Amino acid sequence: MSGTLSAELADWIHGFKYEDAPQDVRVAARKCLVNSLGTALGAFELRDVQLALSVVRDEGISGQI
To answer: Which residues are CB-neighbours of 3 under 8 A, at least 6 positions away?
Structure first.
């Protein structure tokens, strides 16, 4: 290891190719992505999520929601 842990991780990520991951890892990654999106969409109208969005808006943070 020649640099900081962050630098080593950044180098690994930069050089990573999706095709190099084993098939089971790619399948698991897709499942996690779909699960995360479904959770975000399903929770969007919950009171706590709306309160958090309200705080973000009050702070002047912008972006698409």
So the answer is: 11
Q: Specify whether the CB–CB gap between 53 and 45 falls below 8 A.
A: no
Structure tokens of 16? 């990573």
d(CA 28, CA 43) in angstroms, rounded, equals: 22
Query: What is the spatial distance between Cα 42 and Cα 44, in angstroms, rounded to a whole number?
Result: 6
Instruction: Note the pTM of the prediction, 2 decimals.
Output: 0.57
**Chain CA centroid to CA 31, Å:** 13
SS3 label, residue 60: coil
pLDDT digit string, tens, across residues 8-65: 999 999 999 999 999 999 999 999 999 999 999 999 999 999 999 999 999 998 776 5
